[in-house]
Structures are given as structure tokens and as C-alpha cells.
Amino acid sequence: MTVEGVFMSKMPALFVGHGSPMNALEQNTVTESFQKLGKDLPRPKAILAVSAHWETEGTQVLANTQPPTIHDFYGFPKSLFDIEYPAAGAPALAKRTQELLGDAILSEKWGLDHGTWSVLVHMYPKADIPVYQLSLDAKKSPQEHLETGRKLRTLREEGVLILGSGNIVHNLRAINWKEPNGVYSWGLEFDQQIKKALEARDEKTLTGYADLGDIAKLSVPTAEHYLPLLYVVGATTQDDVLTYPYQGYAMGSLSMRSVLYS
Question: 20 to 30 A Cα–Cα from 43, which one of 2, 8, 145, 163?
Fold first, then answer.
């Protein structure tokens, strides 16, 4: 809600487990939770998405006036490639974000990838809220990713919904197609350890997740799907209330947990 252009309340910070791109087309418990979020959350002025699917050298901020819909996958049905998410960009907010971060560059060489639009087609199907993205700097440490998230905090007070999109547990090599809602013991243990750390505001464990040993190696074989969570955690304040809009698993090796701070 705004009065004379001033946002009256802080926007939430949200991490979602996006899972398969097919979730864009499907009606299931995960996508129903996205739809509910779109209805229940205060309407944002814009959305800043940190997606697992945009990795760069150095931090980049998407500054397109009209970002294209990127179909950054293969082997899926034509109906998925036909989806367009024609949300406007937010160039002024991209510039504002660049200023807050200090070490980022503006870019028009990307668009909205499926980590972003496969979620937003359910949250905001009319595509009537401006959306821009922040890349993951592949050279930064987990602690540096968290600290980048801290610099984004003020955007929440300016009407921006910060959306991290990835999966806390994400190991495609271990997919078990016979268990659509199942989870391996190591994935369950890692997800629960991260949940415990979130509730304790234990940033040491959240950024030092590799110290959890074999369960971390199996759950996070590469970091890109985990890191968006750190941006969301970094953007929180002590007065935020933590909830889980969705808790569940997919195909043995994916955690579909969503994490909301509001």
C-alpha cells in the first residue's frame, strides 16, 4: 500500500523451491502454494528475482525495459517452450540496485529465466508486476552472497519483493523417477539441518553448509540452486517472522521447501 508514492510497509523476502520447469504447466501442491502466495502477499511495486539459472562473472543486474522470456532448458514439450511471461522490466530499480551493491553492472544480455517465470506464472499470472533479475557471481563465496543480500534489504522498504528461486536440495544425477514425492535420507537430513539453521538464524551453518559433510556433498553437488536462499536470508531483519509456505520433496533428490520472511 502506498501514500503519495511512499511504501507503507516492508515487503516480504521469499525463497521458493522451483523444481522442474514442467511446474509452469502443472497443477500440483507446489504450484498451488505459489498461487496462494500470489493471493496472500501484499502486492509489490516490483519483483527482484535471484535465480539459480543466471550465473555470471561479477554481479549483474537485469536492466531491460521488456525482458525476454528465456527457455533455458531442452527435452521438454513444445507447450513449455510456447510459454511467454511478458512482464515489464524495472530499469530505474535496476539502477537503484546497482547503486546499493556498489560492485554490480547493468546488463541487457539476459531476461527472465525459468527459475523466475515458472514460479511467477502461478503467483502473478497476468504478468502485470515489473520483474528484474540479479545474477549469481560464480566467484563469490557463500558468505559474500549472504552479504550481497544484506545490501538489498532497503529495497523491501521501497516496495520490492525479493524472490530467491532454487532448491535447498538439488541433485539431478540422483533423481528417482519412481518416487515423485519421495526423498533420500541424506536429502531429508540436509533439508532439516538447514531448516534448523534458518530458525536459529545460524548464518555460520547456512554459509558453511559444506561442513555438514557427505549429506551436503550429495544435496548440493553444485552451489547455484542453494545460493539464492542466502540472498533472501541476508535481506531479512530481526523483526521478520519465518514461515514455510511449502514443505515437501520431489523425485528423491529435490527439496521443494519455500521460505518466507514477512
Answer: 145
User: Nine-digit cell at 178?
Assistant: 519412481
Identify each DSSP E strand in 9-130 by its residue range. 13-17, 46-56, 59-62, 104-107
The amino acid at residue 69 is T
User: Who contacts 126 (Cβ-Cβ below 8 Å, separation ≥6)?
Assistant: none
Q: 231: part of which helix (H) or strand (E)?
A: helix 227-234
In sign, the C-alpha dihedral spanning 45, 131, 219, 77 is positive
- Topology of domain 2-261 in CATH is Protocatechuate 4,5-dioxygenase; Chain B (3.40.830)
Taking the complete model, does pTM exceed 0.90, yes or no? yes
Beta strands in 115-219 (DSSP E): 131-137, 160-166
Distance CA 17, CA 37 (A): 13
CB 107 within 8 A of CB 61: yes
Q: pLDDT tier at 74 (50, 70, 90 boundaries)?
A: confident
